[in-house]
Amino acid sequence: MKLFIKAILTSALSFLLINVKAQEKTIIVEDNFSNNVYGWWIGRTANGSCEMGRGEYILRYNGEKSWSSNINVDLKQDEDFVIETKISRISGTNSNGYGLTWGKGKDGYYNFIITPNGKFYVRKVETGKKGSYLINWKKTQYISTSSITNKLRIQKQNNELEFFINDKYVAKIPFEQFFGNQIGFMMYQTQQIAVDYLVVYGKSRSAVVVNNQQDIIQPDLKILQIAVNDKQDIENMSSSFGNGNSIIEPGESIEITAFVQNFGHATAKDVEAKIVLSSDDRNISFPDEYKTFSLGDIKSGDYKKLNFFFFTSRRYESKELPFKVVLSEKQGSYKTEQSLGLKMNERTNNIVDADISKLEISEDADMKQITEIMELSDVDKNIPKNALIRENTLAVIIGVENYKYAPNVEFAQRDAQVMYKYVSSVFGIPKENTYFLTNKEATYGEFNKIFSKDGWLARRTAKGESNIIVYYAGHGAPDAKTESAFLIPYDIDPNYPKTGYSLDKLYESLSGLQAKSVTVFLDACFSGKSRTDEMLVAGARSVIIKTKNSAFSAKNMAVISASSNDEYSAAYPEKYHGIFTYFLLKEIKEKAANLSNINLQKFYENIKTNVVKKAGFLDKEQTPSLIGNDKDRMLILD
Description:
14% of the residues lie in helices and 36% in strands. It is mainly beta.
């Protein structure tokens, strides 16, 4: 990814040298999202979320209006500048727009928006007023309709703003003064986008000029990684007490370790930390509320640990744990505050999802690796990358962890996220060939959109040429009367399984595409239980699932399922995955160098052996199954 970004930026900046006096300008922002050095918002609300992973900044929105995320950029607007980004649109309707915002402040903002159906506009929005179009809706051939990825550039030349889409000039307008110094991304209505990079090239307002070079030298303290300890350690007289699953639950005494790291280029001197609890609920006890923690000096790239305890009684009902940390230099002017994002009854993202191998900054700062924090699973790190690009392969990746009407499927979202990395990096499937859904996005309507007769897959599949990979992690449910099985989208109640997406319907749809090969991986079970052995369907009983023969009319169609009929697909807490998905990823990773020569039957048998063995050690019974007409074919057909 880094080499790719550098190549892109080199190309872009070479073009800019013709138009902008390079010796008077500098790169103010160069973000490839391998870490959160620029302080983008990370978190989730009822309507959307922002996260960082896979070298991308991923924005999801489930509402009917707009969603944006911005950072402060110290850009001198009176000078010429360039703002450039590359955005991949993962899901949403063709009429929903997305793009760049700039010059944002309390009184308004500007945005440059494109849509997948080939239109764009530029708009000025003033607070309390109706937005006005500086460039009204225009059709352009330069928006890629065959790919989900587009590059946008805004370029100020003298007193004009020029707009480019995929390096093609599309329009220009007179420059107007900013409302503020924020730059970021915006999208409208339900959709998901992934930002590959952002570069801002120009002149900084507050830059210190030293030998005709611009440097902004200051500390930048952030807490990106947190460890939760709820283990009972009587021997060492620990203050923590709980069941040891690293999830904050009522009635537990919790030790929090926050890693304060300096992402800036100057030493933060004599750092003090204060922890603030914004709650007067008597059911949460915080003995360190008025304590000041002295962390000492934190050099550029270095980190210090901050430990504190709290206790929640069984009567604590709020989902949020409103802790924030105020960090400041005792004698200096630097001060910042940050919410820790702690929540009850769910795994904190920056514990499980933190990739310590990604914790790095520009070449000027030597970032230390935080080795004390809970590490990722071995299958989540050092994912192999193959040079081969499989343009003829399509992938559908769906993971539903949080359901509207059903218990959670522990780690299912993470399963899908890492599988997404594998289909891109190991299998070499382009982003535009991949449909990726998690949680609220994975509705019944989306299933229909993907798998219907005129759906996403059907429109892209070339008969006898395309290879298709489908991965699903989530609930399945049985219908005892018909002895049939159903996948359960986010918005379906498993007590009414027939309202889910029929497994036979899925297989028949995939078979009917007449693709070169179809391979389905199902980390779901159809026993009426969840990954944690909870009853999913009221009154569920074991049934033998019967699959229609017609569903497997395609010669090269195969399905590897996580478990057999009356078993449930269990979680592997130590690895933060489902057992089946963990060993599926592990087998792919180990065979990545010889991917085209993997025999499907042997591939399945290796996974089955490992799953059965590990399930036994976890006091579970789980036996993966393989069905298909040609079990001796290669896993991937090139």
